[in-house]
Amino acid sequence: MNTDVPIADLGSEILHGVISWDFLQFMIALIVTLLFVLTSAALLSFLDRKIMALMQDRIGPIHTGGPWGVLQAVADIGKLLLKEQVIVTASDKITYLLAPCIFIAPVIGSFAVLPLSPYISLPGTALATGLVFVVALSSIDVVGVFMAGWSSNNKYAMIGSIRGIAQMISYELPLLLSLVGIVMLTSILSSQAGVGTIAFRDIMTLQDTWQATHIPVLDCIFQGFTPWSWFVLIQPLMLIIYYTCGLAETNRSPFDLAEAESELVAGHLTEYSGVRWAMFFLGEYGNMTIVSAIVCFLFLGGWSGPGVGYLIGLHSLLWGGVGNLLALGYLLMKIYLLCFVFVWVRATLPRLRQDQLMRFAWLVLMPVTLGNIVVTGLVYLIVNAIGLPNVVFLIIVAAMNWIAVYGFVKLTWRSTHRNTHRAQRMAIRAQPLPFV
């Protein structure tokens, strides 16, 4: 039997695959995702400077060109691209050159499973283990930080990388545990009892509880958009803990000990310049975007907003396109509002000491996240044994979480206040006595 495929038939199949809606959707999603990844760092850098300037009663970059100095980001990109690439003579050159690639690769890979709208999404968004995939990729950054510090043959870089590794590993655990409560909610609310989900689309869908009323105005506003059922109302404490761990994972203030310029010059980045330094810079702001995007999907309903579900449900090319643009706009708005909190925290809180940072992770965040898992499971078992509906379980868990938020803030404030006074007393005792 001749199983050879004629060349003409093979060419027609390839042409048919290229000229199709699926291929067009893939190309649009790929282009939009790459543009978002590459431009997000420049935009966040500019917003970082302007927002901090506003909070500190300054003007910020304004003389570079354009309204409000918007061309500052373009000037920064040009400077980094044209800057001389300096390599330390005594460094491990292969490891030194690979470190920026290892650091930025997980950032790009994470967007393969993060959809931007119902239509603008890469094939990887259908991955059933999307949440685990993103968390696993984030742990690779530790390798990049270690490679950068060790290969630079610089004591400041090495100390900075050791600090960064200890910090990232410590906060990786409560970060992951804070998401277990959301997975438990999906297993309870899922149509298949006891079977949860860790796919971003499915988690977002479970936060939509709207039933069609056949009233056009209400259906247009609330179809796919039910903010009263977002998981942030049920697990607010886990949102705070996840976001705090996200600050530590991205080495942002007050967890920027790995790059403490007053102590370590620039930490593991000391010997990097030009494009290679820009890759670390891009990775840091990319991680900020990823942390904010995960918060949106798990706690804030993803791209849900007024009009999105209704317009896409019309199955019209025109209105479906409008609905996807609305979804993209809502998601970006939520992401950049959360990124604004990153900048706000940086401009507000001072840098923690190393002992405070590690103590907060192991003695505060770890017990709280483990306690949330135990309490959520016990409440469900009790409610289920009594025969009450899931709504009662959600109300009880939400009430306990909001009470725990108050207790967590109070505990953190008292702990910080006590540690500050202890450090001040030790500093006063260490001062030399004045000459008489």
Automatic annotation (TrEMBL):
Q: Name one GO cellular component term.
A: plasma membrane
Q: Where are the transmembrane segments?
A: 23-47, 94-114, 126-150, 171-190, 228-245, 285-305, 325-345, 357-382, 388-409
Give GO MF terms, alphabetically.
Answer: NADH dehydrogenase activity; oxidoreductase activity, acting on NAD(P)H, quinone or similar compound as acceptor; quinone binding
Q: Which InterPro entries match?
A: NADH_UbQ_OxRdtase_su1/FPO, NADH_UbQ_OxRdtase_su1_CS
Which UniProt keywords are listed? Cell membrane, Membrane, NAD, Quinone, Translocase, Transmembrane, Transmembrane helix, Ubiquinone
Q: Which domain of life is it from?
A: Bacteria
Which E.C. number(s) belong to this protein? 7.1.1.-
The UniProt entry lists the main location of this chain as membrane
Read off the PROSITE patterns from this record. COMPLEX1_ND1_2
* Catalytic reactions of this protein: a quinone + NADH + 5 H(+)(in) = a quinol + NAD(+) + 4 H(+)(out)
Its placement in the membrane is given as:
Multi-pass membrane protein
Q: Where in the cell is it found?
A: Cell membrane; Membrane
Q: Name one GO biological process term.
A: aerobic respiration
Q: Where is the signal peptide?
A: none
Q: Which purpose does this protein serve, as stated in its record? A: NDH-1 shuttles electrons from NADH, via FMN and iron-sulfur (Fe-S) centers, to quinones in the respiratory chain. The immediate electron acceptor for the enzyme in this species is believed to be ubiquinone. Couples the redox reaction to proton translocation (for every two electrons transferred, four hydrogen ions are translocated across the cytoplasmic membrane), and thus conserves the redox energy in a proton gradient. This subunit may bind ubiquinone.
Q: What do we know about how this protein assembles, alone or with others? A: NDH-1 is composed of 14 different subunits. Subunits NuoA, H, J, K, L, M, N constitute the membrane sector of the complex.
The UniProt similarity line reads: Belongs to the complex I subunit 1 family.
Output this protein's name.
Answer: NADH-quinone oxidoreductase subunit H
Q: Which organism is it from?
A: Tengunoibacter tsumagoiensis
